[in-house]
Design a protein that fits this description.
Elements lengths: L7 H4 L6 H13 L3 E4 L5 H11 L5 E4 L9 H14 L2 E8 L3 H9 L11 E5 L5 H10 L5 E5 L11 H11 L6 E5 L11 E4 L7 E2 L5 E2 L2 H7 L4 E4 L1 H4 L4 H17 L3
Parallel strand pairs: 1-2, 1-10, 2-3, 3-4, 4-5, 5-6, 6-7, 7-10
Antiparallel strand pairs: 8-9
Helix pairs in contact: 3-4, 5-6, 8-10
Length: 258
């Protein structure tokens, strides 16, 4: 998909989702379409990297259940950093159960995700009840939901038919579903925000089947909006310097395509 697109600012008024509108405005103002996947296992390291990289990103993506020393102090501090550096927090929970269960998982338990994560995501596999359950909690907080339409891992089972069904499901809940986790844009509807994981300057894959595409390929060829970079930044000798490079590459690719 290599056609020209509307700018982020032009799409703000077209979105039904309050958080999507805020995110598009932030991206345009901050000139960043970079999300950092901060998959670290200790609170201190997560807060440190969020503070160092926060000025470069529009979204910080977390996996809160891999934190070995989790307390609610961590999420309170993450909220402060999000406000300080002007980014949104995306908890990559990938809910995948019936509506009643995911509602409780989202609002309660140890992590109380809905209280601090502006964005979360879910698989569409259980049916529309999963969106309804999450929406009962998230809508009143003006949170947003991403549906997992495609994955970047090798041999995953999310085929084009699954992606199409996921899109159809999203269209029933445009006030809560803000977009998709995917490798490609699913259609030309400017309401949806697409986030693509597995982005790196060098294409290839790791030993566990994670497949990588470049920022330019993700944005220009595949039509995504936000590139998600993890180990390419986290494991760099100078993470701040590399994050700047990814931000510049992502923004240049977007700018050349509007």
């Amino acid at each position: 998909m290599n056609s020209k697109r509307l700018s982020y600012s032009e799409r703000i008024k077209l979105s039904n989702n309050a958080l999507a509108q805020k995110l598009l405005k932030l991206m345009e103002t901050k000139k960043s379409n970079l999300a950092l996947s901060a998959d670290v296992t200790h609170s201190e390291k997560l807060l440190a990297i969020a503070d160092k990289i926060g000025s470069e990103i529009c979204v910080l993506k977390t996996h809160i259940d891999i934190i070995d020393d989790f307390t609610t102090h961590l999420t309170e501090e993450l909220k402060k950093l999000a406000k300080k550096h002007d980014f949104f927090i995306f908890e990559d929970r990938k809910f995948a159960d019936i509506g009643h269960t995911v509602k409780n998982q989202y609002q309660g338990g140890l992590y109380r995700i809905a209280d601090w994560a502006h964005i979360t995501n879910a698989h569409s596999l259980p049916g529309s009840g999963i969106i309804k359950g999450l929406a009962e909690v998230g809508l009143q907080k003006q949170n947003g939901l991403l549906l997992v339409a495609e994955m970047s891992s090798e041999e995953n089972l999310l085929d084009p038919i699954y992606a199409e069904k996921t899109l159809e499901m999203a269209e029933q809940f445009p006030d809560f579903v803000m977009g998709f986790i995917s490798q490609h844009k699913l259609n030309d509807d400017p309401r949806w925000i697409y986030m693509t994981p597995g982005v790196r300057f060098a294409e290839g894959k790791d030993h566990l089947g994670q497949q990588y595409v470049t920022p330019e390929k993700a944005i220009i060829e595949h039509g995504t909006d936000i590139i998600i970079v993890g180990r390419g930044i986290i494991n760099a000798e100078d993470p701040v310097k590399i994050a700047k490079k990814y931000r510049e590459a992502g923004w240049e690719a977007y700018s050349s395509n509007i």
